[in-house]
Design goal:
Layout lengths: L2 H4 L6 H17 L15 E11 L4 E9 L10 E10 L10 E4 L9 E4 L4 H12 L2 E3 L2 E5 L11 E3 L6 E6 L3 E6 L1 E2 L5 H11 L10 E5 L5 E7 L5 E2 H10 L5 H21 L3 E3 L1 H21 L7 H16 L4 E3 L11 E3 L5 E3 L10 H4 L6 H14 L4 H18 L7 H22 L5 H10 L2
Length: 449
C-alpha cells in the first residue's frame, strides 16, 4: 500500500484539541512501554489518525496515533500505535500503576489519563464490542464461526506485556490488542483463521476480531484461553532444573509443528524457491549479519565463518537446488507453545517477529525457518550439554514422522536459518538483555566453525 494511501486526513479541530491535551503526557509515557519500538530516539510530535469514543464524555477513548521521531522524515507517516485511554477526575487507587498522567491543558484539562486495559470496567467494554459485530466510529468488529462470546466474563489483564497487550476473560477467552499497527491483515489473525478452515485444532481458532473501519489494518483478536495449559519454555526449564529428560515432549512438539505446517500448506498458496529466491534470501541474511556485527562488536570475530553459511546456501541455488516455501509461524520457540493437561501441544502467537515489517512477516519461507527457531529455543533453555542435543534430535524426528521429510536432510538451509536467527538474537540481547548475550554468541561461535 502506498504512503499516500496510508497518510491520515487532516485532523478536525476537536481532534487537534484532544491531541493537545494528551501530547505532553504521551511524550513521557510511550517510550517507557515495552511495546514501543522507537526507544532511544526522542519523540518530536504526533499525528492523530483516528479517535473513537467507546464510552461517553471521553471516559474511554480508542486512538490510532502516529509517532514522529528522527532520523525518519518528519513528513513521513511515522510508526502508528493503538491506544486505549481512560480519563477520570481521579484514577481509582488500584489503577495507580496504569496512570499516564494528569492533563493540564486542552478539552480534557483537569482529568487523569490512564491505560484503559488495566481497568476491568473498560476491558469489559472491549469484550462487549467484540460480542456484538458492527461498526463504531473508526472501528469495525467481527465475529467468526468458531465459538461464542458469553456475557459478563470477568477480565484479567496479563502483566507479561511484549509487542501487544492481552486480557483474559473468565479463563475462557483471551483478547490480544496489537500495539504497533501496520497496514495489512495481521498474521496472528490470518493464519489461525486459515488453519481453522482447514480443520487444524493445533491452533486456537479466532472467535472475534476488530480492525479499522476500512479494513486496512488488524487491531486485535479474541481467541479461546487454554486454561491449565503450561508454557513450553517453563516446562523445559522445570525439566532441566530437575535434571529430567525432555526428549519425549520435544518429539511430540515436532509432530505438532509438522501438522501445522501441513495444514498451512494446504490452506494457503505455496511457491518454489529457485535460484533468484535463494540468492535474495542469502543476500538478506548476509546484510543482517554485517549490519548486526557493527552494532554488536562481540560478533565480529565470527563474521567470516558465519558468512560461509549464507555463501553455501547461495551456491546450492546456483547449482539448481530448490525448496518449497509456504506460510510459516515466523517466530517459533518454546514460549509460543502450550501443552494442555491432556499432553496435547498447541501453537500460539502467529504474529511473527514484531521488529520486522508486516509485509516481510507474511512472506512464504521453507519450513526450516520455523524449525531453526525451535532448535535455537532448545539452546536457549540449555546452551551447554547433551540436553539440548537430545531435544533437537527428538524434535526433528517427530517432525519427520508426520511430514515425511527430516529437516536435517537439508543441513545447509537449516544452518543458514539457524545462523540468521542467532544473529537476530544477538542484536536483541545486546539492546534489551545484555546478560543473555552469551547465549546467541555461544551458538554463533559453533555455527561459524
Amino acid at each position: 500500500m502506498s504512503e499516500a494511501a496510508t497518510r491520515p486526513a487532516a485532523p478536525t479541530a476537536g481532534e487537534s484539541a484532544l491531541l493537545m491535551s494528551l501530547d505532553p503526557l504521551l511524550r513521557e509515557w510511550l517510550p517507557r512501554q515495552r511495546w514501543f519500538a522507537g526507544k532511544g530516539r526522542p519523540v518530536t510530535g504526533f499525528t492523530l489518525d483516528s479517535v473513537t469514543e467507546l464510552l461517553p464524555d471521553a471516559a474511554l477513548l480508542h486512538l490510532l496515533v502516529r509517532v514522529h521521531q528522527p532520523p525518519a522524515d518528519e513528513e513521513g507517516p511515522g510508526d502508528r500505535y493503538q491506544l486505549l485511554i481512560g480519563t477520570a477526575e481521579a484514577a481509582a487507587p488500584h489503577l495507580a500503576p496504569a496512570v499516564i498522567g494528569h492533563i493540564t491543558q486542552g478539552p480534557l484539562a483537569g482529568r487523569t489519563a490512564y491505560e484503559a486495559l488495566q481497568d476491568p470496567r473498560h476491558s469489559a467494554v472491549l469484550l462487549e464490542r467484540l460480542r456484538i459485530p458492527g461498526a463504531l466510529g473508526a472501528l469495525r468488529f467481527h465475529r467468526g464461526p468458531h465459538g461464542e462470546v458469553p456475557r459478563d466474563l470477568a477480565p484479567r489483564p496479563l502483566t507479561a506485556e511484549q509487542s501487544n497487550s492481552s486480557v483474559v476473560y473468565g479463563d475462557t477467552l483471551i483478547a490480544k490488542v496489537f500495539r504497533r499497527v501496520a497496514p495489512g491483515r495481521n498474521p496472528d489473525l490470518e493464519l489461525p483463521l486459515a488453519l481453522a478452515r482447514e480443520g487444524c485444532d493445533r491452533v486456537p481458532a479466532p472467535v472475534a476480531w476488530f480492525e479499522t473501519s476500512d479494513g486496512e489494518a488488524t487491531l486485535g483478536v479474541l481467541q479461546p484461553f487454554l486454561r491449565g495449559a503450561a508454557d513450553g519454555w517453563d516446562l523445559a526449564r522445570q525439566h532441566l532444573a530437575k535434571q529430567e529428560d525432555f526428549a519425549a515432549s520435544a518429539h511430540d512438539l515436532g509432530r505438532a509443528t509438522a501438522e501445522v505446517h501441513g495444514a498451512l500448506a494446504r490452506a494457503l498458496p505455496t511457491v518454489t524457491y529457485t535460484r533468484a529466491h535463494i540468492d535474495q534470501l542469502a543476500a538478506a541474511m548476509t546484510h543482517r549479519l554485517e549490519s548486526t556485527a557493527q552494532q554488536v562488536p562481540a560478533l565480529l570475530p565470527y563474521v567470516p565463518g558465519l558468512r560461509t553459511a549464507f555463501d553455501s546456501l547461495a551456491a546450492l541455488g546456483a547449482e539448481g537446488r530448490t525448496w518449497q516455501a509456504q506460510r510459516v509461524h515466523g517466530d517459533l520457540h518454546l514460549g509460543q507453545c502450550l501443552r494442555e493437561p491432556s499432553g496435547t501441544w498447541k501453537l500460539i502467537d502467529f504474529e511473527g517477529e514484531p521488529s520486522r515489517p508486516l509485509a516481510e512477516r507474511r512472506l512464504p519461507h521453507p519450513v526450516h525457518r520455523d524449525i531453526a527457531g525451535m532448535l535455537r529455543s532448545f539452546d536457549y533453555a540449555s546452551p551447554h550439554g547433551d540436553w539440548s542435543l537430545s531435544c533437537r534430535a527428538a524434535y526433528c524426528t517427530g517432525y519427520a514422522e508426520v511430514a515425511g521429510t527430516d529437516p536435517r536432510t537439508s543441513p545447509v538451509l537449516l544452518r543458514a536459518y539457524e545462523t540468521d536467527k542467532a544473529v537476530y538474537e544477538a542484536l536483541y540481547e545486546a539492546r534489551h538483555r545484555p546478560d543473555w548475550l552469551h547465549v546467541p554468541l555461544t551458538a554463533l561461535k559453533r555455527l561459524s566453525s
